[in-house]
Design goal:
single chain; alpha/beta; Rossmann fold; CobQ/CobB/MinD/ParA_Nub-bd_dom; P-loop_NTPase
């Protein structure tokens, strides 16, 4: 069975592509057959994928056949979808029907919280979520969890009963790896240990922690 994760936020610049590409990189480094889908006009994730070296763990894109809908390559185990800014309405509903988990990257600023509030209301109202078929969690982006702004973000999300899964710090490491089609999980642990540790609770929520095999459950 293909497991699918939607990375979504209606606000541009929230960190969707950073989250999606590194998530795909994690599953590829763990030996999974991964597809990275990009439904954003900017195609940031697919541009990242195009720059990925052949000797790195393989990540595939959509298989597109003229006259047929795009679909994951045969044998895909994990599908990561990087969504467009402004996602709402029927397009959001259609994507929710295809996924098992929804990750929402958000930065701890009033503008980001205001822009995301209506999105949370819509996504929580979807039938798939009400029936607990799709689960949603938030990842704080470019933030120190000890700051006041992080606490305010936690309070904002608690009012919507949405969990904060983890905090990814503001570091140039993500920019550096992205430029070469790399993910954090393609780097030596000596260089990426601190940031990999920040990913642990996110991966645990997704069902991939330690020796657990989420894809086979």
């Amino acid at each position: 069975m293909v497991r699918s994760i939607l990375v979504a936020n209606p606000k541009g610049g929230s960190g969707k592509s950073t989250l999606a590409t590194n998530l795909a990189g994690f599953y590829a480094s763990a030996g999974r057959r991964v597809m990275l889908g990009d439904v954003d006009r900017q195609q940031s994730s697919l541009r990242w994928l195009a720059g990925r070296a052949d000797d790195l763990p393989a990540i595939q894109g959509w298989e597109v056949v003229p006259g047929e809908p795009a679909r994951p390559p045969r044998g895909t185990q994990v599908m990561v979808l990087d969504s467009a800014a402004g996602l709402h309405g029927k397009k959001l509903t259609a994507l929710l029907r295809r996924v098992d988990r929804v990750l929402v990257p958000i930065q701890p600023s009033p503008f980001d919280m205001w822009a995301t509030e209506d999105f949370f209301q819509q996504i929580l109202a979807e039938k798939a979520l009400r029936k607990s078929r799709v689960f949603m969690g938030v990842v704080g982006m470019r933030v120190d969890p000890r700051t006041r702004s992080a606490k305010e973000l936690e309070q904002f999300l608690a009012s919507h009963d949405i969990p904060v899964l983890g905090w990814l710090r503001d570091t140039q490491l993500y920019v550096q790896v992205a430029a070469g089609g790399l993910s954090l999980f393609d780097l030596p642990s000596s260089r990426s240990a601190r940031d990999r540790e920040a990913w642990a609770p996110i991966l645990d929520w997704l069902g991939q922690s330690g020796s657990d095999d989420w894809c086979d459950k």
